[in-house]
Amino acid sequence: MSVTQHCPVGPAGNVGSSVTYVFAVCGPGRPGPFAATCGHTGGGPLRLLAVGPLWAVVQDVPAVTFSETALHRRLTDAAELERCARAHHDVVTAAAAGGPTVPLPLATLYLSHERATAALGANLERFRAALGRVAGRVEWGVKVYVVESDTTARPAPSAPPETPQPGSQRVSGRAYLSRLRHRQHSRELNRESALAAAEQVDRAVREMAVGSVRHRLHGPEATGRDRTQVMNAAYLIAEERGDELATTIRRLRGSPGFDNIEIEVSGPWAPYSFTDGGELAGHQ
C-alpha cells in the first residue's frame, strides 16, 4: 500500500500544535490496547481512527518536532533515525499481533484527524485488498552472502628477496600476473557459485511462500569487507510455516556448494514489503 508521506508543517511550526501520525491500518477487528509507552516520545497516547469499517492506528505528535525541516534533520541522523524507526516498528508490531495489519511508511503525517480520515478513506479498497492478502501471513527476510576465502580476499605474501638473476624480473612479473589472474578467476568462480546458491535458496523458500520481493543489495559498508551480499529478499509466508522455513534453511546450509555461503534469516515481521503485493505466487 503506497500512501504519500506528508510533512505538512512549515519550518517554524507551532510549539502548541500537533499533527496526526499514522502508523498502520488494521482490519475491522479492533487491535487491543497499546502500552502507554508505545509511540513517539513527546506524543499523545495511541488512538484508533475509524476509516470506514477499518481502523488506523494514530498518534498526535508535536508539530514543531515533526515539521519538514525538523524531520529531515532527525531522519538524516543515524541515531535519531533508528529511534524513530524503532518507535514506528514497535507500534506496527503491536497492532499486527491483534490481526491483519497494513504498515504505513515511516513519517506518514497529516495536519488533522479529518485529513487523515479523508486521505486514508480514498484508498479504502486498496487497504481491503492488502489486508486480505496478508491475513494469516507474516514476512520473513532472507539474505545470502558469499564469504571471501583467504586466497581470494588477500594477496599472497611476497616471496623473500633473492639475488637477481638474468631475466628474473621478467619471470617475477609473469608470476605476479599469473597470481593476479588466479585470484580474479577464483573470485569469479566464487561469485558464480554464490549466485547459483542464492537462486537455489530463492526457489526453495518460494515453494512455501505466497509472495516474494527482491530488495536492493547492501554494500560492504553494511555487510563488512569479508563477505558480499548476493541476495536480499523478503517472503510472505503463512504464520504456521515458520518451522518448515527453519528446516529448509538448515538443509540448504548443509548442501553441497554452500561451503562459503552464509544464509541470514530474520523475522517474522509485519508484512512491510507486501502492502503493494510484491511478486505474488500462483498457489495462494
From TrEMBL:
<feature type="region of interest" description="Disordered">
    <location>
        <begin position="151"/>
        <end position="172"/>
    </location>
</feature>
<dbReference type="GO" id="GO:0031412">
    <property type="term" value="P:gas vesicle organization"/>
</dbReference>
<comment type="similarity">
    <text>Belongs to the gas vesicle GvpF/GvpL family.</text>
</comment>
<protein>
    <submittedName>
        <fullName>GvpL/GvpF family gas vesicle protein</fullName>
    </submittedName>
</protein>
<dbReference type="InterPro" id="IPR009430">
    <property type="entry name" value="GvpL/GvpF"/>
</dbReference>
<dbReference type="Pfam" id="PF06386">
    <property type="entry name" value="GvpL_GvpF"/>
</dbReference>
<dbReference type="GO" id="GO:0031411">
    <property type="term" value="C:gas vesicle"/>
</dbReference>
<keyword id="KW-0304">Gas vesicle</keyword>
